[in-house]
Amino acid sequence: MLHGLFGARGNFHSICKQLSQNGRKIVPYDARNHGDSDHRPEMNYSVMAEDLLGLMADLKLDRPVVLGHSMGGKSAMTAALRQPDALTALIVADVAPNPSPHMSRMTDYAEAMRNVKLPEHLSVVKARAEARLQLSSVVQDRMVREFLLTNLREFAPQQIGWRINLDAIIDHMDELARMPGLDSEPFTKPTLFIFGGDSDHYKNADFGLIKALFPAVHTEVIPGANHFLHADKPLEFVEIVNNFVRDLDDSQ
After folding, report:
1. Less Cβ crowding at N or C end of the chain, within 10 Å?
2. Keywords, A to Z (predicted)?
3. Catalytic site includes residue 227
4. 30 an active-site residue?
């Protein structure tokens, strides 16, 4: 399971618990420059697809079902198009292979985070309150602001900073808007796209391109869900994923 921009593997904690109840092995991980993963200057879907395929090989995962949300969805699509035999199936959550909307806003958020100035010797709680205040003029959506603030970490006693590599993200935001390989041979294995009905990613999705690249595609839309559909409508999201994977099991 691959998280989105500014996220971490913990974003899927409750979803993983629900999906693993039938004995499935679920492997969420932190993308490069996110969470506990290494900070590296290179940041694009080619290298993140390599990271995914390398992790699958290291963990000896035999043709898993790969699920990716947003940035993670584009990484997963890139990996599927490059090494289709490495996957059994693909699940993409609220993103499409065409350019993502509102990436300039994401750059504004990242730059606002980079510009946060924190006094020394603050607790995490007080540092988060100070950062919240400084971000509020740029990141006006309260839920988004709180999501970004989960990236503040205490690296040493009363030494607080961002755990994500904001420099690399900002430098490569144009590459994160687009995924490579749109002239690839199609991925012909079972593919599920799940969109939030209120999401701009759904409203801007190029369904012709999706069908061309992923001809065995099935699309589900969750009414009332926005971009963070797994958080907005977790029960519906889990049911859709479970049904898709159950159908895969029945067909084998």
Report:
1. C
2. Hydrolase
3. yes
4. no
Q: Tell me which residue has tokens 């859709």.
A: 240
Give me the count of residues in the chain. Answer: 252
Say which residue the tokens 């999501």 belong to: 147
Cα–Cα distance measured from residue 224 to residue 231, given in angstroms and rounded to the nearest whole number: 12
Q: Which of 186, 233, 211 is nearest to 96 (CA)?
A: 211
Sequence-distant (≥ 6) Cβ neighbours of residue 31 within 8 angstroms: 2, 3, 37, 48, 51, 71, 72, 75
Hey, what CATH topology would domain 9-100+178-251 get? Rossmann fold (3.40.50)
Given 37, 46, 102, 167, the catalytic residue: 167
Alpha-carbon dihedral sign for residues 237, 238, 243, 244: positive
* Residue 107 in tokens: 């750059």
* Positions of CATH 3.40.50.1820 in the chain: 9-100+178-251
Catalytic pick from 30, 34, 70, 230? 70
For residue 53, which of 82, 12, 30 has the smallest C-alpha distance?
82
Instruction: Let me know: does 50 contact 153? Beta carbons within 8 Å.
Output: no
49 pLDDT tier (thresholds 50, 70, 90): very high
Dihedral of the CA atoms 243, 200, 180, 45 (nearest 10)?
A: -70
The sign of the CA dihedral 70, 1, 90, 171 is positive
Q: What is the pLDDT of residues 17-35, one digit of tens each?
A: 999 988 899 999 999 999 9
Whether pTM exceeds 0.90: yes
Residue 228 DSSP symbol: S
